[in-house]
Amino acid sequence: METKAIFAERFKSARLMNGFSLQDLVDALGGTLSRQALHRYEKGEVIPDAEKINMLSKALHISPDYFFTTTKVEFSDIKYSKLSRMPQKEVAIINETTKAYLSRYLELEEIIGLSHSFDNPLKNLGKVSTYEQINKAAERLRKAWSLGTGPLFNIVELLEDKNIKVVRLHVDDDFDGLQTFVNKTIPVIAYNERKANKADRIRFTLLHELAHLLLVFADTTEKQKETLCHQFAAAMLLPEDTIKAELGNYRNRLSTIELGNIKKQYGISMQTIVMRAQVCGIINSNYAKQFVFLIKQQNWKAEESVEYQGIEESNRFEQLLFRALIEDQISMSKAAALSNQSLAEFKKQHQPMF
Question: For the HTH cro/C1-type domain, which residue ranges apply (predicted)?
Fold first, then answer.
């Protein structure tokens, strides 16, 4: 692809990522560039000079290098969670923001020479439609990834270690997450930190999206599919043998104290523990409904009384960045560009190192 076409594609991507129309960008630039000029850039008719590129990068909140990056980022079919009500402008922001982050990430991996190999441990499981199949899938994945039956620490880091890219977004409240494959081989999960704003919610959301990513579903309704993905996430966080060891095989009642203790240890919400206990036959459905009603009455669904204190983040990108920098595979200015920062910002943030 020639330079003009690369610039045009990147320019449009950056504009959409910011939710700008061409006129919005004119306004953001204070009228220093005309709509006609911006239209010519986007059509690939001309590349602006360095001064104008700097102006555009500041208005669009990107590094100037972004306009000329050639790293390929092509999505397979994207599966979104709760996106039907969102306007196309917001959908474009989600897509382009995800692409921009992945472009920098994949370019860094290419520089270092890392492969993107991913093997789906559940690929031969067949089509799933029942809880029993979901439970089996979670058990198989834990075994394939050598996770045992205890608590899972840092789901974000776990997925990244398995070559699944995790993207954190801050977007419209109608969006929960997405899953797709980039360049046909690289699995990606994105989540909305405005919705999944606490560690236990992040964990559940990521594992819910992981179910969408790894499993093939039989002919089921969307509601049934969502329920199965919920069950998969809960089974991954709290395997059946584990919850029975914690609560017993059968209970007439549950206490909020023991639910809180399990939440603090396993990073799973109290409401989900109750629903998991019902699915595993520990409590009956009537008691589960009563308990969930109590939770809603006391607004625990939004803010539970006990918090999980685990960390849900990965430093993999930063580790790779400084590995490349210290090995002289990239310059400091390139490191700043890959971090989507100016050189001055990058140096200030990492002042003790430099």
Answer: 11-67
